[in-house]
Amino acid sequence: MTAQRTYGGVSAQQRQAQRRTALLDAALDIVAEEGQAKLTVAGLCARAGLNERYYYENFETRESVLEALLDRIAEELTGAIVAALTTAPPDSRSQSHAAIDAGISVLTDDPRKAQAALIAGMATPELRARTARTVRAFARLVAAEGTGFYGVEVPQNLVDFRAIYLIGGLTQTLTTWLAGDLDLTREELINQVTEVFVLLGDDLAGRYR
SUPFAM superfamilies, alphabetically (predicted)? Predict the structure, then answer.
């Protein structure tokens, strides 16, 4: 009964959600600034301004914190991309440019997110596997959006291949660019990625019209 009490108009569930958010915000800071090795229970709780018991209320291990952080970034990316697609003009170039711009903006407007995703996503074999699953999830999103946009019946294995190729290539390209090893401005990067998405999408749809 005590756990369900409301204080100041905020329920116990809402307070727990707020504490979880504070812990993930702190994790984002620590991983981006100091690396995932510095993500300790004591350090995380000190940064979040919370008692350590609230850590165990939400997480079991450091890996579970990193998984939740990666999931939150992925959810933000998905939301931004889908929102961009709904407002962009209905042609392949505008749709591709809007989606790519929205996704890259999430990671570059707050550089901590790109830094955390790159560090946390490669921290352990389990997290690398989770990152691979996230890549596949975004590939499924691209495949579904592309199929709906072009309205052409294309063998699913070909759609899946191109979607995975595009997302895998974008992930590696973005990693290289963020590391400073690709001499392109942000807008040049977005434009070049857009060209590749349009080329592969228009080509495949055109083959089956």
Answer: Homeodomain-like
d(CA 153, CA 48): 51
Cβ atoms of residues 74 and 137 within 8 Å: yes
Mapped onto helix, strand or coil, the DSSP state of residue 6 is coil
Q: Which residues have a Cβ under 8 Å from the Cβ of 44 and sit 6 or more positions away?
A: 23, 26, 27, 30, 55, 65
**Do residues 34 and 75 lie in contact, with contact meaning Cβ atoms separated by under 8 Å?**
no
pLDDT at position 10 = 75
Residues pairing with 7 in the sheet: 10
3-class state of residue 180 by DSSP: coil
**For the chain, what percent of residues have pLDDT higher than 90?**
78
- SS3 of the chain: helix, strand, coil, percent, to 5: 80, 0, 20
Average pLDDT over residues 37-66: 93
State the Cα angle at 124 between 43 and 75, rounded to 5°. 75
Cα–Cα distance for residue pair 156/159, rounded to 1 Å: 5
Q: Give the DSSP per-residue string, 140-171.
A: HHHHHHHHHHH-----HHHHHHHHHHHHHHHH
Question: Is residue 3 scored above 50 in pLDDT?
Answer: no
Q: What are phi and psi of 88, to 5 degrees?
A: -75, 150
